[in-house]
Amino acid sequence: MEINHFNCLSIGVGGQGVIRATQILADAALLDKHSVRTAETHGMAQRGGSVTGYLRFGSEVMGPLIPKGGANIIMSFEPSEAIRAIPYANADTIMFVNIKPIIPLSVYQNKKIVYPSFEEMQTNLKKVTQKVLFIDAAELAIKAGSIKAANVIMLGVMLGSGALPLSRENLEKAIMDGVPAKALDINKKAFDLGIAKGEELKEKI
């Protein structure tokens, strides 16, 4: 498939596999013969801080950073992190949001800091784009055999929905090459479950 440029922003918190997911997507895009550029930010990742992965691929990709309002896809591994990604979205952006929250320590330490309700987050996201898909990636990952496979669930959902212009064969190869050997079976099942869920959600985008 000839693509001039495609921008995918991945966001979450430390420990959710955001960078690994970005690397897998980049490897799949390379296997599909695209030019690829990536970048990442993860200052306090090990302390549960925000982590962002930037991926751009296609025939006309000059740099790694996604311009504001320029994301084709935003994949958020934590719901409140999707709010942080709003500046990169536009009316045509498709957002895939894992619904399982990870409450920051600051919320417990300071009663003046309030974690937003799911309804508030949903309302704010849909002010920017109506193409917001919520996924219980944790539940599906547990079904696959490990909560750690939630990032692969999200990759499968994006592919199954038809929003990600990469081949299933090469994305699956990139996943299998990018996860530990002992976790191959779990991640293969997670990928298949994610694709099935994405196919269910396809009509919403």
From TrEMBL:
Domain Pyruvate/ketoisovalerate oxidoreductase catalytic: from-to ranges: 14-195
Keywords, sorted A to Z: Oxidoreductase
Gene3D superfamilies in alphabetical order: Pyruvate-ferredoxin oxidoreductase, PFOR, domain III (3.40.920.10)
Gene Ontology MF terms in the entry: indolepyruvate ferredoxin oxidoreductase activity
Keyword Oxidoreductase tagged: yes
Listed EC numbers: 1.2.7.8
InterPro entries: IorB_Oxidoreductase, Pyrv/ketoisovalerate_OxRed_cat, Pyrv_flavodox_OxRed_cen
Domain of life: Archaea
Pfam families cross-referenced by the UniProt entry: POR
Coiled-coil spans in chain: none
Keyword Oxidoreductase assigned: yes
Protein name, per record: Indolepyruvate oxidoreductase subunit IorB
Source organism of this protein record: Candidatus Lokiarchaeum ossiferum
